[in-house]
UniProtKB/TrEMBL annotation:
Protein name: PriA DNA helicase Cys-rich region (CRR) domain-containing protein
Source organism (scientific name): uncultured bacterium
Coiled coil: none
Domain PriA DNA helicase Cys-rich region (CRR): 59-84
TM annotation in the entry: none
Keywords linked to the UniProt accession: ATP-binding, DNA-binding, Nucleotide-binding
Amino acid sequence: MINIIDLNYSHNPYPLLSQNIIDLILENISKNKKTLLFLNRRWESNSLICKDCSNQIKCDFCDIWMVLHKYPLQKLICHHCHNEKEIPMTCPKCHSTNLNQVWVWIQKVEDNIRKIFKENEIIRLDSDKIHKEWISREDIKKAQIIISTESVNTISIDNLGLVWFLLLELEFLIPEYNIEEQIYDNISYNMKRWSDIAIQTYIPNSSFINILTEWNFKDFLMTSLKERKDFNYPPYKELVYVWVKSKSQEKVKDIIIKLKNKLEINNTENKKVIFYDKELFSKRASEYHQKIVIKWEDLQEFLSCIKFEVFRNKEINIEWK
């Protein structure tokens, strides 16, 4: 069963912690069952949502939700193509002035959970702890609330009564062309593995949530394929992922910028850099990772443009999708 919690109208004692979800967790604990909270991304995020029509502003060129920036410029920015928009005073869809700023600070959410459920056993799982075996099976067995990332899919949790997704729209801010597919897969995987799912959201009437609650994969597939065709994404066009990794974050930045500048000299409709985010780094195994996503029809031509940079740098990997 999927339980959609509308944060617009629910009583929220703490930011992103509705009374509904607190009650569900308490009920779960009373039944000696565990609750799993997905914090799928470890960062701060900011967006703008209309409370009247649930509209969240998308980029005109990417069909990706835009992120609200307040410093140094007050703008809505697409983290996929860097398109910018002025922050609107009214909703572009329904013209309501009831716009709601959604700010997510993951660490604060975790702190509040520990404050509310201070008498209960709480553990946090992330890829580092699982990889280094800092969390034992006994720790997981004793835990009543588990705060985790997607990495939990690789381990077994017995007696789990509820899987809770903190804020669905947070996921849509990730600059990936197939992010809706990733979210759908993640939720459907958990639905098959465990029965009860709780999803908090400010956009309960969105088409994606309607498809999700009706469990209509055919509609989801047709909608996704249409959007990908409109924006020239796979399977209708191929993308090149250029990954750069190094122990030095500055070195990664330097290589990425040089590659981006060189490739943009050849920019056309069918040859262009479609994603580069200078702030979006991930760190794995003590190395910083960054990527450029490129739309390029001819692989040989693309490789000839950057072959010297690739041969000179063992930090560069190329992936063709």
